[in-house]
Fold these 2 entries.
Entry 1:
Amino acid sequence: MSQMIPTIEVQNLCKQYGATKAIENISFSVMPGEVVGFLGPNGAGKSTTMRILCGLMAGTSGRVSICGVPVATRAHEAKRHIGYMPENNPLPRDMRVLEYLRYRARLKEVPGKIRNKRVDEVMDLCDINRKTRHKLIGSLSKGYRQRVGIADAILAEPELVIMDEPTIGLDPHQIRSIRALIDSLRGKMTLLFSSHILPEVEASCDRVIIINQGRIVAEGTTASLREIFGLHSTYTLSVKAPRSAFMLAVDAIDPQKIIQSESMDADGFLRFTIRTGLAESFGEAMSEAIRQHPEWCLRELSLKQPNLEDIFVAATARSWEQTLENSENLNKENDEAFSQLIHS
Amino acid sequence: MRHFLSLFIHEIRMLLVAPATYVAAVLFLLLMGFLYLFLLEDFSRVPQDSLPSTAFFSVFWLPVFFMVPLLTMKSIAEERNSGTLETLMTTSASPFEVVLSKFLGAYCFYCFLWGVTISFPLIVHATLPASSIDPRLLDMASWTGGYLFVALSGVLYIALGIFCSSLTRSQLVAGMLSFSLLFMIIIGGRLLAELPLLEISSFQFLNEPIKTLQVFSQLEDFSRGIIDSRPFFLYISSGFLFLGLTSLWVEAKA
C-alpha cells in the first residue's frame, strides 16, 4: 500500500527578523481531510507560519512542503494546491462579487468550460448567490465579505485551505454561519485555520496546534491534550444520602479524587464538587452506586470537562514559565561567568 | 505568462472605473489643449522657422510630471496597503506578470491620452478655412516622430512610476518619489551637461554618456523625423530594468 502524502509537512521551520526569532524550529504535519485549528496568543507566529506555508514569504531555515511539493523551490506549483484567506480578508472594494470571483477563477486556472458553473457553486455554498452576487464588495457587511473571502479560497477546489482568523470581528450569528460553512467543507479538503474564538475551534477541528513565542507548545486532539496537561474533569453532585456512606462509595470509585467543595442545602441535599481523573467512567460508576441504594436520592450529576480554553491557558502558561526559567538560567550563567572573570 | 491576459484586462477595467484616471485625463487634455492654442496664437502672430508640432512636443515634460505619478502611484501601493497584493501573490501568477500587467495598463492609457492630442491639429484643419491653414500644421513626419518619442520615453517613465509605487504603501509618497525621479531624469541630463566639471580633461570621458542622456536633444531629433536607434535601446532597456527590479521587490515584500 502506498504511503499517504501529508497535505502539510513542516520540518524544523525557523524565521528570524534580524535578532528576533518569530518562529523557532517548529515541525508538524497535517494529513488529507483533517480540520486543524492553529491557535496562539497575538504575536505567537501564527500568521507568519501561514504566510510561509502559502509561499508569501520564505523561512530562514527548515523545510515546508504542500502535498509533497516543496514551497521554497517550487512555490508556483505549491500555490496551485492552496486556497488562502489572509487576516482581515482584503478584497477590492470597487468590484462586484460575481465579477471578482470570475476574475479569481481565471487566475486560479479554473478551466473555462466549468468556470461559471464553479463560481455559481461556491456562491451557493457560501450563500452569496441571491442577494449579493451583483453587489459591490465595498457595500457588503463584514459577514458577507468573509463569505466572499471563503468562496475565493475554495474556488479552485484546492487540497488545502488556509484561513487566518476567518471569524474575527463577526457577531455570534455570523460566527455560527461561518462555522457551518467550515463544517460543510469537512472531508472535501484539508483545512487549517487560526482563531481566538476557542469554542468554535473546539467544535470544528479534529486537532489543534498551539503555538506560543514561535514554538509549538501543544499538538493533538482536545482529549489527548487534556491528558497531557493533566487537566482533570470536575463533577457536580447533589444527593440526599448519609454523608459517611456516600463518601465510602465515592472512595471506592476513585480513591485519588479531590473534593473541591462541599455544602448542604435547606432540603438536606449534599452538594459536592469532585475533581477526578476518571472522566466519564466516574459518572457511570457513581450513578450505578446511587442506584444500588434506593433510599438515596440523586438531584444532580453533571460533568464539566476542561475545554480548549483551559488547555490553551495551561499550554501557553507553561511555555512562558519555561521561557522565564531559561532566561533566569541564562542570567545565572552570565553572572557566574562575569564573577569568574572579575576573580581571575 | 498564462495569467497575463487576465491580469491585464483586470487592470484596464480597474483603470476605467477609477475616478483618478478621469481626473488625470481631463487635466492632461485641458493642459495640452491650452498649450496648443497658445502655441498656434504665437505662430499666427510671428512667423517662425520651427514647426508647430516641434514646439508642441518640446513641452512634453510638463504633463509627464503630473500624469505619470497620477497614473502609476496607486498601482502597487494601493494593493499593498489594502492587502489585495497578498491575495494576488497566493495565486500561481508570477510577480513579473503582475508588474507587467500594471505597467501595460498604465502605459496603454498614457499612449491613448497622447494619441487623443492628434485631434488638436485635425480639429484646426477641419474648422478653419483651407486658405488660412499653413501646410506645416499637419507635417506628418514631425508628428509621427514626436509621438514615437513620447511612446518610447513613456516606457521608462511609466516603469519608473510603477517602481516607485512598489516601494511604499502610501500613494502620496509613491507619487512624490515618482515626480522627483522623473524630474532628475528629464531635467538632470540638461543640468549635468552644463556642469563646469566636464571641461576638465580627466572628466572628458563623461561627455558622451551625458550626451546620450539629453532628453530634449533626442526629442528634437525625433520631432524632426530623425530616428536614432540609441534612444530605443536606452528607454526600453532601462524601462525593463525597472520592471525587473519592481518584480523582485514585489516578490520579496508581498
Entry 2:
Amino acid sequence: MGNNKQGGNRSQGHYEFIEHTADIAIKAYGDSLEQAFAVAASAMFDIMTDGAAVVSEESIDFDTESVDREGLLVGFLSDLIVLHEVQGYVFGEFEITFFGENRLRARCRGEMFDESRHASGLHVKGVSYHMLEMFDGAGEKPSFVQVLFDV
Amino acid sequence: MAWKGPIDKLDANRFQIPASYQSQTMKQHGVRMSVPAVIYADDRMLQAIIRDDSPEQVANVATLPGIVGRSIAMPDIHHGYGFAIGGVAAFDSQSGIISPGGVGYDINCGVRLLRTDLTVPDVKKHIEKLVNTMFSNIPCGVGSEGKVHLSPADMNRVLEDGARWAVENGYGWAEDLTFTEESGSIEGAEANVVSDAARKRGSRQLGTLGAGNHFLEIQRVEEIYDTVVAEAFGITAVDQITVMIHTGSRGCGHQICTDYLELMRRANKKYNIPLIDRELSCAPATSPEGQQYFTAMKCGANFAWANRQMITHWVRESFESVLGQSSQSMGLRQIYDIAHNIAKLEEHEFEGKNRWLYVHRKGATRSFGPGHKDIPERYHGVGQPVLIPGDMGTASYLLVGTEQAMRDTFGSSCHGAGRSLSRHAARKQHPPGKVFSDLERKGIYLQAKSRKVISEEAPEAYKNIDEVVEISDRAGIARKVARMKPLGVVKG
C-alpha cells in the first residue's frame, strides 16, 4: 500500500491508484458519494483504455440493484463491464441520476470501442469486494470510494 | 501488513500457522481456526511471503466451516481476494462449504501444452511468421471478439459440454479430450443457472486469449529432468518444440463469479456463517445456493475448456499454413490441459478413511499421482502432467503429479510464478521498448496488442519460477520433468 499517485481528473472529482501487487485498486473522491461512484467508473475506463479519448456520442441509462451500497458500487461497475464487453461501448462521462440504498440509476456517455482511436489497456475482468471501502462526507467532507479491479 | 503471528517450521520446505492462532478479526467475529495452515516455502521465500497478508488469508480460510486437514498455501502464494492465490482448501461434502472466492474470478483459468516432432532448426527461421500468424488467427487484447458468434442454443452446449462441443464442431481432435482434465467437459453442468449477462459476455469471447498474464507461446525444451516420464508425455529431446496456451473462461467465468458473489452475500446471512472477509462469502455445500454455484462454476469451467480447445485448433492451422505440413505429420499433439482455478468434488483418503471433499484450488494445480482413475490411461504409470506457466522471458515447466501430493495436499501443487511487482511499478520501471529489446536479445520474439501490457508483464515483475518449482519438487508434491524456454510469445 502507500505510494499513492494522482490518476485522473474528470467527472468532477479525482482518483488515485493504490498500490497492489496482482491487480489495480483505486480511490475515487467526489463532493458526494454518488459523485465518487461516477469517478470510480471513469477510473475503470482509464484502466481499460484512455477515457479522455472517448467521445460522448451516445447516452445510456441503466439501473443497478443490490442489498446495500457496497453491492451497488460493485453492481454498477460490473454492469458497465457487461455493457463494454457485450455491446462494445467505452464510456468517458458518468452521472448517478438516482441514488438510493438498494438501487441506483446511472447515465453514461460514450461511444463504440474503436481500435484505431482507443488505446488497448488492461482488461478489467471483474470488480472485487476486497479492500472495498466507502465514506459519505454528506457534503461537509469529500466522499470517497475505494475499489479493487480484477485484471 | 506483514505477518506478525506465530509460524513454525515443519521441515525445510514447509511452515505452519498453528490452529491456536486467533487474529483480532477472528476474535471480533467469534471464530477460530479449526485446522492449521501450512505454507510451502523455504526460509528465503518465506521472508517474501510474510511481507504481504497472504498468511493471514490462509489462516482465515482455516476458520471456514467443514475445512478438512489443513489450509494449504503453495510456494507461489500471494495476496488474493479473501482466499490467497496459490491456496488449496478441502471442505467436507456434507458439513463443509463452497465458496466462489476459493475459485476466483477466472473460473478454470488454466494451461494447455502441445508437443511437436519439430526441433529448433525446423522453426528457427519461421518464429516471427508463426507468432504473427497466431496473433492474427487468435483474437486477443481488450475489446477483442471471437471469430465464432454463438447462437443461444450453441452457447448452452458450450456451457454444458465444454471442449467436447468444440471438437464435435470441427475444432480439434477427439484425442485432445482424452488429454484434458475432466475430458474437457465436467459432468453436472446445467446452463440454466448461468445468467443472461454471463452468456452474452461469453458468447462474444469464445476462442479469444484475453489480456494481462494470459499468453500463447512457442517454446523449446531446454532441459529434461526425467527422461522416462518425459517420454511418456511425448517429450524426447532437448530443443523439441512445444506450444503453451494460458487463458481461462474470459468474461463468462467472471460474470458467473460476480453473479454468485452477490448470491453468496445473501446466503451467508441466511445460514448464519460469520463473514470475516467479504470475499470469503460462501454457502453450505449441501444448500441450494452452494449447489447452484457449483453447477454454474462447472459451466464456466466448460467454457474455458472449449476456449482453449478452439485456440488449439487455430494454433494447428497457423503452424500448417506457415510450415506447409499437416498437424498430424508435425506431431502437434496435446500433452495435457489443466485448470488452476476450480473447485472439484473429489474422493480423498484422509486419516485412513475415504471422504468426498470439495477441493478448492485457486492458483493451484491438480497433481494426481500414478494410478489415479481420473488421469488418462497413457499416463497411469507415471502420474498426471502438471503444467506451470512462467513469465515471458524465463521459462515454463512440465512436472508430474505424485503419491505424496495425494497424501499431503489433496493432490495439488503450485501453478506459476506469481507477481512480485505491481502493474503500476512495472510500468514505471520497465518501458515497453526495453522489455521488447531485452527479450529480443534473449532470442524471444514478442507480439502484443498493448504496450501497457508489455511493461506490466515484464519478466522482472514476476517471482522466480525456478524457486517456486524447486520447492514443489523438493517437497514431493510434483516432480520436475522438463523446462521449456519461450521462443515466440503472443500477448493480449
